[in-house]
Design brief:
mainly beta; 7-stranded mixed sheet; 4-stranded antiparallel sheet; 11 strands; 125 residues
Length: 125
Amino acid sequence: QVQLVESGGGLVQAGDSLRLSCAFSGRTVSVYDMGWFRQAPGKEREFVAAIRWSGGTTVYADSVKGRFTISRDNAKNTMNLQMISLKPEDTAVYYCAARRSTLTLVTDKVTYNLWGQGTQVTVSS
């Protein structure tokens, strides 16, 4: 059974930092590409960042580029999202996701078939 569990969400002030973690289990997950997505009330779930199964190659949404850093540690079965300079518009439920690795690091949420339950991030002004 494959399982993804997010943690690290919370209430912070604008300009603050926060680190989200996604613990994953399952024999095949460590060789899957993974990503972070978020969904704010009344909005569609959107792409935040993605990382290759082996690390190194990453992709970020324009809205978070330069502020967020995605990483993974397969030995520890974790994927992380380090967020700095948080803004109120970053408020959302953040989800970790995984998909079978391909030659291109995909950002379309519909291609990710493994999902966690989400963790709430709230940034006050």
